[in-house]
Amino acid sequence: MISTKNIIGSINDVPAEWVFEYYLSLSEKLTGQDVKIHSVFKTEKTPSMFVYFKAENNEYKFKDFSSGKQGNKVTLVSELFNITYATAINKICSDYERFLKDNNYCSVNEYKIQSKYRVSDYEMRHWTNVDGKFWMKFKLNSDLLEKYNVSGLSYFTMQKEEDGKVSEITFRGNHIYGYFRNDGTLYKIYLPNNPNKKFIKVQNYIQGLDQLTYEKEFLIITSSLKDLMAFAKLGYKNAESVAPDSENTMIPEQYIKSFKKKYGGVCVLFDNDEAGIAAAQKYQERYGLSYIVLDMSKDLSDSVKDFGIQKVKEKLHGLLTNALKK
């Protein structure tokens, strides 16, 4: 009799946690926790790749900030071996069958969802000379910061509760900034001097959305709020700007469709490094949007800081004209 014990009929038969454990050679079994490792796609000193549990889908996914790659178990294998999605499915099933012949593997029946630190408290403060020195490097003054609801914070506290125990961490410093919506809702905290974690996301939000007038001819999608404000500082009278949560977060399709209807042209202006270009290409592939690579400093705000408004505008003008042709 032919045994079918280890025959895998579908990719759904392969536990996502096994895929990440096996192909990433993880040292621990995934049971609901998030794991941070060095990127498998790029050499880096500081780990920036996350394998995380998505409770809504009850499965593991990954996000690699150094390369911009992200997705599910199949995407991981497709990217690792540079093969198509369909080929990756076949490989996973085949490798898992082979693995089961030589090993006993027990899939996790119940994940233990780990509590995560969340912002629980903060205090706004007045602007100082220290703030002015930092933001003016990018030619961003208090009027522009106030328009986009950027405020200095004296501190913020993050809290989590696990097994009935509450843990808190409070952060203080000169360079802590809160990003707020027009209604006063905090959606992000910016820590420019923190090399490991510059942003703490509080909630989803398309940055600059509250400030759109829909009266300009063009819309530019930048990589960050700082770049968005730098673009506003360039003084284009016929264009305004928004930014996703990050380059690695796609603006939902319904917003892109709405933008295309309301503007004569929409294009993407992200960082000019590998991750930024890869993220911009996703907007081109998925939404048909043109993208610009500004070959100056790493991003738009740094280009303004390093070269000045006029030189950036001169370089950007031709790129925008070509990208926004109807």
Task: Explain how this protein is built.
The longest helix is centred in the first third of the chain and has 18 residues, at 85-102. The protein has 10 helices and 14 strands. The protein has helices at 16-23, 73-81, 85-102, 129-136, 142-147, 225-233, 253-262, 274-287, 300-307, 309-323, and strands at residues 35-37, 49-54, 59-64, 70-71, 118-124, 150-162, 165-172, 177-180, 186-190, 199-201, 218-222, 239-242, 265-269, 290-292. The protein has 3 domains: 11-102, Zinc finger, CHC2-typedomain (DNA Primase, Chain A, Alpha-Beta Complex), CATH 3.90.580; 115-204, no CATH class; 206-326, Dna Topoisomerase Vi A Subunit, Chain: A, domain 2 (3-Layer(aba) Sandwich), CATH 3.40.1360. It is globular. Helix 1 (16-23) packs parallel to helix 2 (73-81) and helix 2 packs across helix 3 (85-102). A hairpin with a 4-residue loop joins strand 2 (49-54) and strand 3. It has 326 residues and is α+β, with helices and mostly antiparallel strands. Strands 5, 6, 7, 8, 9 and 10 form a 6-stranded antiparallel sheet that branches. The chain has a 4-stranded antiparallel sheet with strand order 1-2-3-4, covered by helices on one side. A 4-stranded parallel sheet has the order 12-11-13-14, sandwiched between helices.
